[in-house]
Structure formats: C-alpha cells, structure tokens
Write a structure and sequence with these properties.
Elements lengths: L1 H8 L2 H23 L3 H19 L3 H21 L1 H10 L14 H16 L4 E5 L13 E6 L2 H8 L9 E5 L2 E7 L15 H12 L3 E5 L6 E5 L2 E3 L4 H11 L8
Helix pairs in contact: 3-4, 6-7, 6-9
C-alpha cells in the first residue's frame, strides 16, 4: 500500500533528480567543512533560515534584501575560495584513490616523541603533521611520497640539515609516514609572536584548515610546540608532549 502511494507521488526521474541534488548539496557542505569555510557555512545556514522565515511571514522588504544578498554572496564565495576551487578543478581527471585514515598507535607516538627529544637537544628544526579524521592531501603541496613505517631514525634523517627532504613537513598517517617535504598553508593569525617563523605559522595553518595535529621543533631554540585547532602550545617537555598526543589521538581519556 505504502509502495503504491510512493509510486504515484514519485517517478523514477524524480528519485534520480533528488539523489543528484542531495549529492551536490553534500559536496558543497563537505567542501566548506574541510576547507576554511566552517564559519561561512554557519553564516549561510543562518541567512537561509532567516530568508525562509521572511518568506513565510511575507516580509517583502527583508525578502528583497535577502534575494540581492544571495547573488552577492555567491560571488563572494567564489572570490574567497578561489585557491581551493582552482586546486579542485586542477585535480579533475586525475587518478584518485580512496583513503582510509588509520588510527595512530601508542608506539608511533613514542617514536615521534623520542625523535622530537633528539632533535630538540640538537636544535634540529622539524615539523610533523599527524592526521586524525581528515586527510590533509587537499591542503598541502609539493610533497614527496614516502609510505614508510614511522621510526625514530627515519624522522631524524628526514629533518637532518642539508638532507634533500629536511625543508618541509612530514605527514604521519596511522603507523606510516605518508609524505615528506610538504608545503603547508600559512596562518595569518596576528596572535603568533614575531619571534616564531614559517614552521610555526605552517603548523597553525594546517590545524586551522583540518583537524590534524602539528608538532614543531624550533631550529633556533630547540623548543617543542604543539598546534591544535589553530592554537599553539609552546615550550613543551617531551613527556608532556607524549601525554597530550596520547589524549588528542584518542588513546586515553582526559585526566586518566
């Protein structure tokens, strides 16, 4: 009975139409979430709800304003996200692969911390990005594909001065080093003191645009810093770094 009613209300063409529109809307929302557009997404939802209420209440002046704002808003989105749109178009037609993000185990955290301790003691600059739920591939550039197990020796070798891959970031995905020598987006935050250079701005930048974690070792002072969600914790002891990474990567509950 229900099937007969649905068949009368919707044809196969209607179903296909709805599915395509749903996929298109999902793609736009996903693009805004993984890029810098989370705040913009909230603003769009707010404007949309306000516009709907204006139409329901027949507030003609307000509805007219929203109609004009919508046209300008679409143009503004294209301008604001021009780099991301250009990058996405450039990737059309390339061979893509499905990425299943793996969880980071405690032994990997231990190896990262040991490598940071070694490099901190010798003032070897380093920038290590650890993926969580989102891939960073769409926001990094110039990477060298590695796909090797995370080891203390390999991390130190990559960042050792004058080696080919030392100038850039390492991306850790699960138990493996996915990429090295990556160029990250730089943060424009005015809160970062001027004494901190490109590595720290890159660490903030990647954590502003994704949910990744970034560990920085300063080449000038040997100081270890941790960037999460666009915020930087500075001058961390290796043991504190280990505790924070263990918690942030879901291997221990807060306070335990």
């Amino acid at each position: 009975m229900v099937f007969e009613i649905l068949r009368e209300l919707f044809s196969l063409r209607d179903v296909v139409d709805i599915l395509i529109v749903t996929a298109f809307i999902y793609g736009i929302i996903y693009f805004l979430v993984i890029s810098r557009g989370l705040q913009l997404l909230r603003a769009i939802v707010f404007v949309g709800v306000s516009w709907l209420l204006a139409e329901i209440l027949q507030l003609r002046t307000l509805s007219w304003i929203f109609e004009k704002f919508w046209t300008v808003g679409l143009f503004s989105i294209v301008v604001i996200f021009q780099p991301e749109i250009r990058r996405a178009i450039a990737r059309i037609g390339e061979r893509t692969r499905v990425i299943k993000l793996s969880s980071v185990e405690e032994r990997t955290i231990e190896r990262i911390v040991r490598a940071c301790r070694f490099m901190s003691d010798r003032q070897i600059g380093a920038l290590i990005v650890i993926e969580r739920n989102q891939s960073v591939e769409d926001v990094v550039e110039g990477c060298v594909y590695i796909d090797a197990t995370v080891t203390v020796e390999l991390l130190i070798t990559i960042f050792y001065p004058m080696t080919p891959l030392h100038d850039g970031a390492v991306v850790v995905r699960g138990e493996r080093i996915a990429y090295a020598s990556c160029v990250l987006p730089l943060s424009r935050s005015a809160d970062l003191p001027k004494k901190y250079g490109t590595r720290h701005r890159a660490a903030l930048g990647i954590t502003e645009e994704t949910d990744a974690i970034a560990v920085v070792v300063s080449e000038e002072t040997g100081e270890i810093s941790l960037a999460v969600e666009g915020k930087l914790e500075r001058n961390l002891d290796p043991e504190i770094l280990k505790d924070k990474l263990t918690y942030l990567l879901g291997l221990r509950n807060e306070g335990s």
